[in-house]
Amino acid sequence: MTQVSRYGHMLKVTLGRMRMKVVCRYRVEGSVLNDTIQGRMLGAETTLELDSPDAPERVARVVRNAERGCFVMQALLNPVPVTGRTLLNGAPLTPDQRGR
Fold this sequence. Notes:
The protein is of the alpha+beta class. The chain has one domain (2-98): GMP Synthetase, Chain A, domain 3, CATH 3.30.300.20. The chain is built from four helices and four strands; from the N terminus they run H-E-E-H-H-E-E-H. The protein has helices spanning 2-10, 56-69, 71-77, 95-98; strands spanning 18-29, 38-50, 87-88, 91-92. It has a two-stranded antiparallel ribbon. A two-stranded antiparallel ribbon has the order 3-4. Strand 3 and strand 4 (91-92) form a beta hairpin. Helix 1 crosses helix 2. The protein is elongated, with a radius of gyration of 20 Å.
């Protein structure tokens, strides 16, 4: 919602009350004890509720810009490479030690 407020200010659109609901669906399969645990995200749904005296077209422009400027939403819509590194007592924990 920070992006909505920020872009609303930049586009000179008056925004009042804002409320965001996010529902994520996910699944976890496998076993921690067997070292086979695997989590995955199945989807996400967002609902943004806004109050504004401005025209719907102007508010829609704010929302479009906020969605396009949201790093999390864009990373989910357009997956990016993710790399991980683990240090144990200051030394690298190698991938084979991590079970990759």
